[in-house]
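Reopening this one. Same input as before:
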Amino acid sequence: MASKLTLQNNINTEFSLEHSDNKPAGFMSSHDISRTVDTVTDMEALIPAGATASAYDKLVCVVRDLDRGGTFVYDSTKVVDDNQGTNFKGWIRQYDGSVNVKWFIDSIDSSADIGIQKAINYLSTINYFNSSTSLFFPADVYTITNTINITLADAHITFFSDGFATLNNHCATSDWMIKVDFSTGATANFIQFNMKNIILDDFSPGATRKHLYTERVIGSTFENCFFQNADIAVDMNKDSNLNSFINCQWRANRLGFKSTDGDANNNVFTNCQWRYNTGTSVDFTGTGENRIIGGDFEPHNASPVCILSTSIVKGTRFERNIQGEVIRVLSRCTVEASVFSDGGTQSVPAVQVNGNNNNINLISWSGAEAINIATSAEYNKIRVQNPQPLGTYKIIQDFGKNTVLTSDTAIHSLSKTTEFSDNESLVPSDLTTWTASNMNVTKVGTEEYSITNSTTAAGSISYSLTGTFTDLYIKLSQVAHLVCGRAVIYVNDTSVGSLAPAMEYRFGVAVVVGTFTDPIIKLKIVTDISGCGSTIKYIRVAEGKIPS
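Same output, byte for byte:
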């Protein structure tokens, strides 16, 4: 006669445990088809050595262990698939949903990474987009001494915790704690690796270890995660694209986030924070189209706090950072940020522009200088607003072939000197009195002058000053669009400022640092089209004063 017990499995369908009248060894009768034990080791011992394993098929065991316990059903055909987490020598765990990492962690192991790796290896056998590929970390501290490898075979895995789980990095300093690497494992297009409520930390002082390295990680989300006390906290490379970091924090690292591979693009950081990093907090060198939205870099991040390339920073605060540049901008970036130095002690620019075609809106700032533009940088559009002066400083050092937009209020705040009129400018306001070369100059209004090239060659107007001058301040106001070419201000034939083609009504400002004897101030229209030009409202030059 057969006995039968009806249970519910993990997909809510009934199955039956049937047993023959020939009871297996160790069981009291044919009706005795379940056991309750304390540990998984006790459960494994229920099948005696040398016994006919199939005689125990469909037997049930409940394990009381809080971390590794649960309900198991024996299947002798699964003994070879033992993974010491969901399969203990043929005892198959009955579960629904996420995998608990503690199922795989044996208390006798020297560190948690052994069990974590076993769990990941198990997840790699599950369908790529099955919800069960979530790996649950109960709130606790997990010591990691060897790299956790996530290969391409694990195409969709999430680490998450109900509180905050800390992975404590005790790996060799040359190794990564977590390495998500497409170069090993099965062939697939990408890896999606998510983390939520996970802390990557190194409790030992010195920030000498490395936390997370990725290759070809695409469409992943990192939410409420902390990356702390590392030599390099996160390094994303080789097609690691379209990833999101939400409410994450980088703290006390030498290098916070690094993405210097040219194929790592379109990663977004929303409301993230960077604190006390001793080196660069974010390095986007060589990458493209990454975005930092909101959030802040403060306090006490070291220089340069942020290196940008083809990236967007919008609505972000940089406050009380020290020891160098706050933002270093390479090429094709958009920056809209508030920048504050540490108590006015900053001796370098808030923003250092080293590349071309950037659009920078510095909403407010304080410190020695707002922006410094490298001599080689061109075609940058810069706006300075609402400064909070803390001493004597200049707007910029080297204007280059760029456009600086600001307001009279901002200029006035920057100066701490008396404003003066056209009549007090070092050059005459009437541009028809300037020396013209290949240039037609006509007064078309009370304070407006039409300037156009008379041939296809570049034309100019210039004025020679007499005497010795220090740190010339030059302001150019344009009324109409520059329909072709480029309007450039020169001092002694050295370019110091440019208005780009087709610019709307704006003015450019240049501070030319140095001492000049009998300097020549020149406005040149650089073009190869005859009749190219614009309407200029004024050119004003001052020494140590700000024109109105």
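So the earlier flakiness isn't reproducible anymore. For the record, The chain is about 5% helix and 45% strand.
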